Amino acid sequence: MKKEIEIYIDGVYYPQSEAKISVYDHGLLYGDGVFEGIRAYEGIVFKLHEHIERLYLSAHAIMMKIPISKEEMLKTVIKTLRKNKLSNAYIRLVVTRGVGDLGLDPRKCPKPTIIIIADSINLHSKGAKENGISTMISWVRRNPVDTTTHEIKSLNYLNSILAKIEATSTDVDEALCLDKNGWIVEGVGENLFIVKNGKIFTPPSSSGALEGITAKVVTRIAKNMGIEAYQTSITPFQLFSADEAFFTGTAMEMIPIREANKRIIGDGKPGPITKKLMDAFQKVIVDPNEGVPIYS
Length: 296
Ligand code: PMP
Description:
Order of helices and strands: EEHEEHHEEHEHEEEEHEHEEEHE
CATH superfamily of the largest domain: D-amino Acid Aminotransferase, subunit A, domain 2
Strand content: 25-35%
Structural class: alpha+beta
Number of helices: 8
Helix content: 25-40%
CATH architecture of the largest domain: Alpha-Beta Barrel
Low-confidence stretches: none
Bound molecules: 4'-deoxy-4'-aminopyridoxal-5'-phosphate
Number of domains: 2
Distance between the termini: 30 Å
CATH topology of the largest domain: D-amino Acid Aminotransferase, Chain A, domain 2
Number of strands: 16
Radius of gyration: 19 Å
């Protein structure tokens, strides 16, 4: 039998089957909380400082004070990986508003709940990286910046889930969401890039997209290769007529997009720029300078 993962909840480690939180936790009752998905590759936690920084900024935006410092949080993530003897992992770091009463008033929740799960994640079938995935533009609009925007990485993902259901129920791999003006924003948990005439383009965070840590790394890699990179609004037409397209995200990593709403993108195969960036990305994620070592 597979050994149970040890999960951190508020300073204590519990075997997976015993890792439980209160039904009065507002993370459950109201989706009131924030989270990060983080990956470790070959003993290095990729961009751990950046993920922790974003977690605390999301918490600040929802006026929730995380009860431990960023430095302690970093050490606790590392400790959780060591406890589970992991070198390659997907880490889910969750901070909920904590236990309150049945009303939604966050003032009734004296202490946020901190949860760290170090496990693995598998979003797509094996051939996805080689062949690309199918996408469709969903009827579900991305929340604009004046609502529960995805700029805050909160526990409210129903919007993404509705779009995902729409895609998978018609046998499409992934959904794309538009903003209220009809520009494409991002996928359900990943940023979108298109390639046109040798340049790469991604929608700006002002459309409500999350400022992806992976997207930032991929943009840097592209610029270092001499590929021009722009943050700009993208229309469905521009996606349909792109030379290449791909997603970036911590869980998704880099995945080529083969088609959108049944329109084949480019020649339907991962294009040369996508492939070049994917190869370079594979090298960057295991670079010790890009993260924090687990065992040192
Ligand atoms: N957009 C959304 C809505 C996300 O949830 C995520 C992360 N899961 C991303 C984009 C990608 O961000 P990152 O590269 O920082 O994981």
